[in-house]
């Protein structure tokens, strides 16, 4: 039985939400395994727009949706998102949504620390451009073994000591940064006030997944962010604080890696990035403006304008390798409709030498210069195409060329934000 892992192969916002929603029709279970509500996944179903940050995109189809232990979970953001989606008619109950008991929590002090650091860094020109959701600080506390976890909400006797331990660390930090200390009572109140809204969803997720796997059900793992934002493999330090690569699907949900059979890399037909950091093919010119306007490239979470540029085959080829991507879902091809020429980066120049990979060091990443190939564009429209035969010959040529450059085939092709404007080439669940 095939289980599918969906990951972003660039800097996020590749269209993972749309593809996960489309694929989840074929799945029984949809699992988030890293990240938190820094993610922003947009689904469009018959003109209705759903924006998800923390909940797996499978909830919209009423599939069993799971928040795995690799996620950092803001309970108040969770309650707000559930209410918003219920308002849109999505059914969310403890029967169709489960949260791993060992998931680390994001608290207000994490969000504040994220903001304090970004503000301070803005003045010194070293900011990351985070989503200010407290993602990094929450992962720091998890790895530092002082985090509060979902299960702790059910054990009010041991909670005060855990909060004390956490505050010893945070109040020292806050004092050092010149901010007021946090009261023990305030954090206790923040946690106890939300416990009854979270605990009904808490479950032994590794067991739920083990049962599901044994029953032969299909599990779809929904990655957030993208490979170049991975804490190890990305453009460090301009990354998020989790492993975003496919291998994390196992550790971040409690299933063996042997259960992950098909890795689908979601890949935009050009490149975007939100926040600071290197971006070799960025176009700060009318091309970048064209892509941003045509592609509606504004962040779902922060509303920030996304930086835009040409397709970078070097990065995606590297993402294919580090994730074990078997096939890609190519999205937003329609955004390129009407361009006279389309450029694709096939390698870099670094200090006078041609290289075919993204170097690991921050300095070298900032220095690489893209080497482009120029392809002819197409005048016809691909927007809304639902069959391969509807695509202009030149668009097919572009797609075939990308496949060759990255060393992976196109399994799905997306031609608009709408759920059904999707062309299936190879079914990841059957392959
Ligand atoms: P995610 O974070 O990877 O889920 O991606 P986002 O939802 O943040 O950003 C992708 C945006 O592109 C969303 O607004 C989608 O509705 C939209 N989108 C997805 N696929 C396509 C496509 O094939 N064509 C166009 N024009 N828009 C798309
Ligand atoms: P989806 O799932 C694009 C970026 C932020 C910042 C960096 C660190 O929608 O693809 P963080 O708040 O995670 O500490 O910020 O990572 N970032 C994203 N960029 N899409 C996302 O998610 C992102 N999640 C985080 O802009 O540069
Ligand atoms: Mg997004």
Automatic annotation (TrEMBL):
One of its GO terms (cellular component) is cytoplasm. GTP binds at residues 12-18, 40-42, 306, 332-334, 414-416. SUPFAM superfamilies: P-loop containing nucleoside triphosphate hydrolases (SSF52540). InterPro entries: Adenylosuccin_syn_GTP-bd, Adenylosuccin_syn_Lys_AS, Adenylosuccinate_synth_dom1, Adenylosuccinate_synth_dom2, Adenylosuccinate_synth_dom3, Adenylosuccinate_synthetase, P-loop_NTPase. Pathway: Purine metabolism; AMP biosynthesis via de novo pathway; AMP from IMP: step 1/2. Substrate binds at residues 300-306. Its EC number is 6.3.4.4. GO terms for biological process: 'de novo' AMP biosynthetic process; IMP metabolic process. It is an enzyme of class 6 (ligase). It catalyses: IMP + L-aspartate + GTP = N(6)-(1,2-dicarboxyethyl)-AMP + GDP + phosphate + 2 H(+). Pfam families: Adenylsucc_synt. The active site is at residues 13, 41, 142. The keyword Ligase applies. Its cofactor is Mg(2+). Mg(2+) binds at residues 13, 40. Binds 1 Mg(2+) ion per subunit. IMP binds at residues 13-16, 38-41, 131, 145, 225, 240, 304. Keywords: Cytoplasm, GTP-binding, Ligase, Magnesium, Metal-binding, Nucleotide-binding, Purine biosynthesis. It is found in: Cytoplasm. CDD domains: AdSS (cd03108). The keyword Secreted does not apply. It comes from the Bacteria. Homodimer. Belongs to the adenylosuccinate synthetase family. NCBIfam families: PRK01117.1, purA. This is Adenylosuccinate synthetase. It comes from Aquamicrobium defluvii. The gene is purA.
């Amino acid at each position: 039985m095939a289980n599918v892992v969906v990951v972003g192969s660039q800097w996020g916002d590749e269209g993972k939400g749309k593809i996960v929603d489309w694929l989840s029709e074929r799945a029984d279970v949809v699992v988030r395994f890293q990240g938190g509500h820094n993610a922003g996944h947009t689904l469009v179903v018959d003109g209705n727009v759903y924006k998800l940050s923390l909940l797996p995109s499978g909830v919209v189809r009423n599939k069993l949706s799971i928040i795995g232990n690799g996620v950092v979970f803001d309970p108040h953001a969770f309650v707000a998102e559930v209410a918003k989606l219920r308002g849109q008619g999505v059914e969310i109950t403890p029967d169709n949504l489960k949260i791993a008991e060992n998931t680390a929590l994001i608290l207000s002090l994490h969000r504040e620390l994220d903001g304090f650091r970004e503000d301070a860094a803005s003045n010194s020109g070293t900011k990351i451009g985070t989503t200010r959701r407290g993602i990094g600080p929450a992962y720091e506390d998890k790895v530092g073994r002082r985090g509060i976890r979902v299960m702790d909400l059910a054990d009010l006797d041991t909670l005060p000591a855990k909060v004390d331990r956490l505050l010893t660390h945070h109040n020292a930090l806050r004092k050092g940064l010149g901010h007021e200390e946090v009261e023990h009572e305030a954090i206790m109140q923040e946690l106890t006030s939300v416990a009854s809204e979270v605990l009904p969803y808490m479950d032994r997720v590794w067991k739920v997944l083990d049962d599901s796997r044994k029953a032969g059900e299909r599990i779809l793992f929904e990655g957030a962010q993208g490979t170049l934002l991975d804490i190890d493999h990305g453009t460090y330090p301009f990354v998020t604080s989790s492993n975003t690569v496919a291998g994390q699907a196992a550790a971040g949900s409690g299933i063996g890696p042997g259960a992950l059979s098909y890795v689908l890399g979601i890949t935009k037909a050009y490149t975007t990035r939100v926040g600071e950091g290197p971006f070799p093919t960025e176009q700060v010119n009318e091309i970048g403006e064209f892509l941003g306007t045509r592609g509606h490239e504004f962040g779902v979470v922060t509303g920030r304008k996304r930086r835009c540029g040409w397709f970078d085959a070097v990065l995606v080829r590297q993402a294919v390798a580090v994730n074990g991507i078997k096939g890609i879902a190519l999205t937003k091809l329609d955004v390129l409709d009407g361009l006279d020429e389309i450029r694709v980066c096939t390698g870099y120049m670094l200090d006078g030498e041609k290289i075919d990979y993204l170097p690991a060091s921050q300095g070298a990443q900032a220095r690489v210069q893209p080497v482009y190939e120029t392809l002819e564009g197409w005048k016809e429209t691909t927007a809304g195409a639902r069959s391969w035969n509807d695509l202009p010959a030149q668009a097919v040529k572009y797609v075939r060329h990308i496949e060759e450059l990255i060393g992976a085939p196109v399994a799905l092709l997306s031609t608009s934000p709408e759920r059904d404007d999707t062309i299936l080439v190879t079914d990841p669940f059957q392959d």
